[in-house]
Amino acid sequence: MAKAAGRSARDSVWLEGKARRGGRSGQPSGLDRERITAASVRLLDAEGLTRFSMRRLAAELNVTAMSLYWYVDTKDDLLELALDATYAELRLPDPENADEDWREQLRALATAYRGLLVRHPWLSPLAGRFLNIGPNSLAFSRVVQRVVRRAGLPAHGVTGAISAVFQFVYGFGTIEGHFRTRIADTGLSADEYFEQAMSLVDEVPGTADMMRESKDLMAARGGDTVAEMLDRDFAFALDLLVAGIEAMVTRG
Asked: Which of 34, 85, 124, 188 could make a disulfide contact with 174, Cβ separation 3.0–4.6 Å?
């Protein structure tokens, strides 16, 4: 996993005891890491990653920017904390529950991760930037690994199967999140935006030709709304990946 520019792996907030620090002696009253992290997530959701700053966060908390540095060393430390905090939203199945099928558990995990990426569009660039070794991220990764192990793949195929599923989900959720952000900026609903975009591309010769070739595929795709189309595409693609894992298990 890529690390933040200019930082070594050991600079992670989760290493060298930095994550356990609740603040230094003499820290400002009324603040703690949990409150600062929660405010960071809210601010990132509202304004995005590019506008996030310690000064803006301090204003949100009605404190000085210097007050925040009693709890974190850098803005990157705070972004790592916010990143891991979002993983706490995921409901994790019990991978040891023999009454639950691994396929359904894997689908549930993939669907939950997609939702996380869509709710927090700023998450995907950070997930590729930091080590993702916070407690909530590790809990998610551990459950995913245990669920995929239950499929019966040889040990050397487990990480490849995880990559196939969750890198697909990462890409799908990232693009969907950007799409929703773009729509929000227009003031239109997703369906209004899609209808407007389709009518506009019909006016561009090269694009119109492509759309005519794809007309039967778009019709077969089904769904009365953009949300339904996305859900069906996601579910079918995920079924393909699950079927691929099953096929590899059969091949031994």
From this structure: 124
Residue 223 zone, left/alpha/beta (φ > 0; ψ -120 to 50; rest)? left
Spell out the residues 6+ positions from residue 168 whose beta carbon is closer than 8 angstroms to its own: 237, 238, 241
Q: How confident is the model at residue 4 (pLDDT cuts 50, 70, 90)?
A: very low
Instruction: Name, in order, each residue with C-beta under 8 angstroms of 220's C-beta and a sequence gap of 6 or more.
Output: none
Q: How far apart are the C-alpha atoms of 190 and 226, rounded to whole Å?
A: 6
Q: Measuring CA to CA, how many Å separate 42 from each of 56, 82, 85, 137, 140?
A: 12, 9, 11, 19, 22
- Name the CA dihedral angle for 87, 122, 13, 5, rounded to a multiple of 10 degrees: 140
Q: What are phi and psi of 8, to 5 degrees?
A: -90, 165
Q: Is the pLDDT of residue 34 over 70?
A: yes
Tokens encoding 16: 């060298």
Other C-beta atoms closer than 10 Å to the C-beta of 60 total 15
Tell me the pTM: 0.88
- What mean pLDDT do residues 48-74 have? 94
